[in-house]
Amino acid sequence: MKKKNFQLEYTLVSSRKQLSAPDQELLKQALVAASKAYAPYSNFLVGAAARLKTGQILSGSNQENASYPVGVCAERVLLGSIGAQFPEIPIETMAITYRTKKKKSDSPVSPCGMCRQALLEFENRVGHPIRLLLAGEKGDVLIIDSSRILLPLAFESSHLK
User: Fold this and answer.
1) Rounded-to-integer distance, Cα 13 and Cα 133, Å
2) Residue 15: helix, strand or coil by DSSP?
3) Are 77 and 63 in contact (CB under 8 A)?
4) What pTM, to 2 d.p., does this model score?
5) 88 is catalytic
6) CB 34 within 8 Å of CB 97
7) Eight-state DSSP code of residue 3
8) Per-residue pLDDT tens for 37-48?
9) Catalytic residue among 25, 75, 123, 156
């Protein structure tokens, strides 16, 4: 028997002024996207904005449904849109943020398990890591170099062969 462990490496930024201007802009776009979320049940409005390798920025927000399984997270809304419109273009960076009426949005949130899987699939599809910026409206920002880091025991296409 052999024990192994995973290590999660990220960068913690305590002041957004430490971020590059393009990263600050991407976070702003993610907040704009969060304001467009349809989340009448959870009141947890999530926005995601992605900068493609071309420099173009696209965004998406969570879309809930009274039949909860029908709702879609902001990350997957955005990935679906990019995959449909620009299937071969890598995402350089994706910013994910949120707003809520229930508590302060002052700490980063991480994508759910389904979104982690979808992010990794997109990375594999285009052969390029997706750098993630995770933040609330204020406070710390986590920078993760690749979504793969968030899903170390991923189920991948190689398992199907």
Assistant:
1) 10
2) coil
3) yes
4) 0.95
5) no
6) yes
7) -
8) 999 999 999 999
9) 75
Scan for tokens 């943020």, then name that residue. Answer: 97
Q: Write out the two tokens for 50.
A: 């992605």
Structure-block tokens of residue 157: 């296409």
DSSP per-residue codes, 63-129: B--SSGGG-B-HHHHHHHHHHHH-TTSPEEEEEEEEEESSS---S-----HHHHHHHHHHHHHHT--
What is the C-alpha R_g of the chain? 16
Contact 133, 95 (CB under 8 A): yes
For the cut 90, the answer to whether the pLDDT of residue 6 exceeds it is: no
SS3 of residue 158 by DSSP: helix
Cα separation, 109 vs 141, whole angstroms: 9
Neighbouring C-beta atoms of residue 30, cutoff 10 Å: 28
Q: What is the DSSP letter of 54?
A: T
